[in-house]
């Protein structure tokens, strides 16, 4: 809708500028024509305005767009176009001068009319330069707009590719969980399959969308946590969650929050009694903070995983400077922190 309205907006701007210019000329030059009635004076100024409009828009539409677009071999053609425009403008000024003399009841010879018309060449040159500048500015802005649109398309394609990488990585970890349950012939197997089906439904329904509800995303994260708890002894003690329900719904990029918890479960040894995973999600006035910690399975392990690397790329594309992402290790605890504002 906005793109459709832009040409009409440009037309309105042109009309407004010319109306302001005409008004300025009419009132600033009125004292030079005391003998003319105001109606005849307006007619004379309108004829001069038409002359300038013809020069401006012939150059704006037909000549200026080609001045720097043609190859060097065609430079003579461009020069011919410019000369033709000035000849046309001068001929038009002759007509305006004759009509002006008729309006003012002046008796002038053709030579006098031709000489006085030469004065209009300065105005013709001015409007030629002005229309060239305006046209080149428009072409530059149009090219920048196209570049911006192309960049958005490329970024969106890159974002979809990153999601395509992230989801198979998640499935790899999920099937490892199912395999572990099948090895011990756990009664939790059917519940695990149900949880996984809920997760798959979310991925199939929402991962291709540009944005999803934060409540849907948090529900997806909770399903994933519950799925991973199925293979942990005493999960309520070892997996501590503090997920604050947002007071009002807002939209985020789908699967944005999965990599923190995915890596937390992947890099933790939950068999050890004192190992825990802490998941904290809080909403503030402009956005949210997301903080996950876990014991590192091997001392010195600092790899944040494929998911977090992709996460940073997605954040750069989707949120620009409106996010803060930090990961670090301290005392065999891995910390992952994300804050997104201005949502």
Characterise this structure:
The chain contains ten helices and seven strands. The protein is an alpha+beta fold. The chain has two domains: 2-118; 151-340, Histidine kinase-like ATPase, C-terminal domain (Heat Shock Protein 90, 2-Layer Sandwich), CATH 3.30.565.10. The protein has a five-stranded mixed β-sheet with strand order 2-4-5-7-6. A two-stranded antiparallel sheet has the order 1-3. Helix 3 crosses helix 5. The longest helix has 64 residues, at 120-183. It is rod-shaped and about 115 Å long. Residues 1-6 have low confidence and may be disordered.
Annotation keywords:
343 residues, alpha+beta, Heat Shock Protein 90, 2 domains, 10 helices
Number of helices: 10
CATH architecture of the largest domain: 2-Layer Sandwich
CATH class of the largest domain: Alpha Beta
N→C terminal distance: 24 Å
One letter per element, helices H and strands E, the order comes to HHHHHHEHHEEHEEHEE
The named CATH superfamily of the largest domain: Histidine kinase-like ATPase, C-terminal domain
Per DSSP E runs of 2 or more residues, the count of β-strands stands at 7
Residue-averaged pLDDT, rounded? Answer: 80
**Major sheet size, sense and barrel closure:** 5 strands, mixed
Architecture blueprint of SSEs:
Blueprint: H1 2-29, H2 38-67, H3 75-103, H4 110-117, H5 120-183, H6 189-206, E1 212-213, H7 214-229, H8 235-238, E2 239-243, E3 251-252, H9 258-266, E4 277-283, E5 288-295, H10 305-319, E6 323-330, E7 333-340
Helix pairs in contact: 2-3, 2-5, 3-4, 3-5, 5-6, 5-10, 6-7, 7-9, 9-10
């Amino acid at each position: 809708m906005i793109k459709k309205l832009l040409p009409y907006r440009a037309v309105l701007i042109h009309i407004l500028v010319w109306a302001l210019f005409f008004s300025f000329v009419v009132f600033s030059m009125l004292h030079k024509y005391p003998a003319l009635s105001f109606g005849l004076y307006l007619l004379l100024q309108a004829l001069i305005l038409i002359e300038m409009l013809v020069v401006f828009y012939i150059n704006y539409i037909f000549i200026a767009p080609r001045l720097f677009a043609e190859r060097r071999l065609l430079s003579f053609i461009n020069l011919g176009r410019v000369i033709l425009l000035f000849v046309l403008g001068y001929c038009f000024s002759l007509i305006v001068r004759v009509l002006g003399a008729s309006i003012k009841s002046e008796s002038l010879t053709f030579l006098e009319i031709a000489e006085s018309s030469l004065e209009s060449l300065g105005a013709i040159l001015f409007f030629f330069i002005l229309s060239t500048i305006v046209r080149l500015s428009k072409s530059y802005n149009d090219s920048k707009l196209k570049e911006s649109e192309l960049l958005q398309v490329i970024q969106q394609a890159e974002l979809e590719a990153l999601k395509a990488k992230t989801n198979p990585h998640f499935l790899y970890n999920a099937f490892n969980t199912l395999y572990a349950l099948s090895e011990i012939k756990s009664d939790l197997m059917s519940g695990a399959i149900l949880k996984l089906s809920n997760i798959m439904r979310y991925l199939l329904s929402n991962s291709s969308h540009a944005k999803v509800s934060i409540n849907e995303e948090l529900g997806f994260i909770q399903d994933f946590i519950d799925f991973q708890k199925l293979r942990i002894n005493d999960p309520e003690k070892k997996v501590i969650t503090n997920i604050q329900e947002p007071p009002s719904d807002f939209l985020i990029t789908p699967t944005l929050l999965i990599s923190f918890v995915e890596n937390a479960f992947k890099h933790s040894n939950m068999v050890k009694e004192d190992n825990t995973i802490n998941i904290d999600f809080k909403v503030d006035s402009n956005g949210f903070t997301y903080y996950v910690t876990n014991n590192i399975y091997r001392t010195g392990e600092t790899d944040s995983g494929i998911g977090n690397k992709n996460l940073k790329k997605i954040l750069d594309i989707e949120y620009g400077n409106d996010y803060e992402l930090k990961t670090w290790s301290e005392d065999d605890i891995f910390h992952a922190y994300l804050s997104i504002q201005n949502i």
